[in-house]
Structures are given as structure tokens and as C-alpha cells.
Amino acid sequence: xxxxSIFKKIIxxxxxxxxxxxxxxxxxxxxxxxxxxxxxxxxxxxxxxxSNDIDEKNKDILAHMFYIAVQIAKKKKISEKxxxxxxxxxxxxxxxxxxxxxxxxxxxxxxxxx
Length: 114
Ligand code: AMP
Hints:
By secondary structure, the protein is α+β, with helices and mostly antiparallel strands. It is built from three helices and five strands.
């Protein structure tokens, strides 16, 4: 798994990335290798390694990430047709970067999971 520094650099604008939204809690940017016409990553501004590290203190950040993902879906006009929100966790879940991130995918009919 790659370390968290890539996403930390994106938040701090030390790395070129297409940031489409940022507030005090989260940053949203285009995935560098999009798997759909719309593929946005939403990450917390504070480092959380994976969904295993969601706890009593930081759980509200997840609600905000979800809320922002939906706002972006509406703004990108994919909310009516639909979209997918994914969080991969660790090796079996397919998490490549050691920094909690939410994928927002849409803009085409996505393949069923099974
Ligand atoms: P995951 O497999 O859930 O860990 O997803 C990691 C995602 O980060 C992949 O979809 C990558 O294409 C994406 N990614 C890696 N590096 C960058 C980057 N510098 N800018 C934007 N997206 C990236």
C-alpha cells in the first residue's frame, strides 16, 4: 500500500491535482486514473488511515464526507441517474493508498458488483 503523503500534499497544494472542493474538514479532487466519466475522491483534511480508524471522536467527519459527495453529485448533475460511493479498506478491500478516501463514481451505467 502506498503511504499517505500523496494525499497530504494534495490537501496542502504541494502537488498538482484538480481540487474541485475544499473546506475546513474535507478536500475533493479528480481521481488521476478515472474509472468513470466522473470519478472524484473525497478525503478528510486530518489524516485517518482507513475506515478501521473511524472512532467516536472523528465519526462526524464521515458524515460530512458523505454530504459533500452527494452535493458534488448534484452539482455534476449525476444524482438523478445515479452514482456509486465506495470506500476501500486495506488489502482485501483494494485500498491502495494509506489515507481514508471516498470514491464518487458516475456519469455512466456502472457495472454491478457481482
Ligand atoms: P484506492 O484503491 O481506494 O486506494 O484508490 C486510490 C485512488 O487514488 C486510485 O483510484 C488512484 O487512481 C487515485 N490516485 C492516486 N494518486 C493520485 C493523485 N496524485 N491524484 C489523484 N488521484 C490519485
